[in-house]
Amino acid sequence: MVTVLREQSDIDTARLPAPLADFGGRIEVRVRPAADGKGTELAVRLRDRRSSGGVLSRLGGRDPQAELRSALRRAKQLIEVGEVLAVDPAPHGKRTATPGGMLLEAWTKVAPKAGVR
Hints:
Elements: E1 2-4, H1 18-21, E2 27-33, E3 40-46, H2 55-59, H3 64-81, H4 99-114
Antiparallel strand pairs: 1-3, 2-3
C-alpha cells in the first residue's frame, strides 16, 4: 500500500497506470481516503497468493510480490508527478574492488526488486 498525494476521485481503478495495468486481472486494487485527509491510499495485492513464488524463485530473481511492490511505487510516481523518477547512474569505469563496494553493488542489483528494507 502507498499513500498517493491526490484526491480519491483522481485515481480511476479502471484505468490504472501502466506498471499496474500490466498485471491485468491478476491483482486486486483498493482505493480509499488516507488518514486525516492526506491523500489517498492505493493498495494492491495478487489475487492468487499461491503463485507468489517460493524461496528458489525469489533467489532466481522472479518474485511476483517484489515485482508488484515495484510496480506500485512506479504507479505512485506516475499518478503524482506524471513520470517515473530515475536515480542518476553510477559512475562508469574501472573501480578498485573492495568488500564493501562488492556488497553495495550486489545489493544495488536487487534493490529495485526488493524495495526499501
